[in-house]
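A favour, since you know our structure tokens better than I do. It will help me judge whether the discrete encoding reads sensibly. The space below this message is yours for that.
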Amino acid sequence: MKNEPYTSRIRRHTPPSPTKKNCLFAFLIGGGICFAGQWLLYLYEALGATRDDASTLVTVTLIFLSALLTGIGVYDRIARVAGAGTLVPVTGFANAVVSPAIDTKQEGFILGVGAKIFTVAGPVILYGVLCGAVYGVLYSVILWFV
């Protein structure tokens, strides 16, 4: 098949994507997660935590809730509706770590969970640390010459 007939056939059989609806749900649910984080920050501060401690508690709470919802299968249902809205850094990262762990637990803790837990999150950790190190070196070199 030539490219043009194949492309037109694909377009004819592919359902249209509801882009505006997807963007709206991503915005609302992602914003809702951020709103919940801000509300938790105010709650922890009202309970007497300092701003730094409250921020840490919010992060731990959001990671815990994301891992829990992933474990009981709710996070995936939310992600089907919200799409990229569930990729808010902390909750999306927790989901990316917990999902492979759940999927590979039958293969054992060492060769299953231990070997595959960071299949999705591993590159994020690797390149995040690597980019941070490169940025630090470049920043130090620039400061040295300035």
